[in-house]
Amino acid sequence: MSFSATVLTLYPEMFPGALGLSLAGRALEASTWSLEAIQIRGFATDRHRTVDDTPAGGGAGMVMRADVLASAIDYASPAGDPRPRLLMSPRGKPLTQARVRELAAGPGAVIVCGRFEGVDQRVIEARGLEEVSVGDFILSGGEPAALVLLDAVVRLLPGVMGNAVSGDEESFENGLLEHPHYTRPQEFEGRQIPEVLTSGNHKKIAAWRRAESEKLTKERRPDLLAAHPLVK
Ligand code: SAH
């Protein structure tokens, strides 16, 4: 069974977007995964197809209505749907490679994209939405965040990446940032490829890469080292 993604959005035209190209696009064509983008507005009940309203308690902006969103979720993910229901949200748990791996190993995901100031808290609780953040910054909507999440997941699906090995050595997979890469030409503007990499000594190369990874992680992301004490 292939990974099945359903996205609830006010901008279904944003999908598949970038995911229609390159690796993800080919995998979509090959039915390695499927993507359905559902217009939330289709579940509005009034004449004006209202999906948002002013915030209770006052303040700027608009809030997405719980009732409209709940109808959309119930349509996209009826009782018994095994897929997790995610809400893209800057208040969510930051997305990690570990969570991406879990999602890729599962049946798919139902992804709600917020707009405006966000969504009514009651639908988050009533439909058990798992809030997921793609970083400590504010996007104008959940759609780019959903594209980011799906991109990360889809590349892990069996058969999507040509060279399966390259996945395991990447940044975060072992709790470290990846070592630097080089390719031809041997000299670029007076800079040489580090000698060890052209030595043909695979043990030395592996040791050099590991040392570079650790150095880089120490410099740039000491928080990662703290989270993986064995690496120290
Ligand atoms: N007022 C909210 C931000 C709303 S941004 C706050 O301060 O928390 C509008 C929508 O964009 C959100 O509902 C969410 O779906 C999406 N979004 C914005 N930033 C995001 C992020 N860092 N990660 C995931 N989704 C995000």
UniProtKB/TrEMBL annotation:
Location, primary (coarse class): cytoplasm
Enzyme Commission number(s) of this protein: 2.1.1.228
Coiled-coil region(s): none
Gene3D superfamilies (alphabetical): 3.40.1280.10, tRNA(m1g37)methyltransferase, domain 2 (1.10.1270.20)
GO biological process: methylation
Binding site for S-adenosyl-L-methionine: G114, V134, G135, D136, F137, I138, L139
A single MF term (Gene Ontology): tRNA (guanine(37)-N1)-methyltransferase activity
Basic and acidic residues bias spans: 211-223
Subcellular location: Cytoplasm
Region described as Disordered: 211-232
Self-association and partners: Homodimer.
Designated name of the protein: tRNA (guanine-N(1)-)-methyltransferase
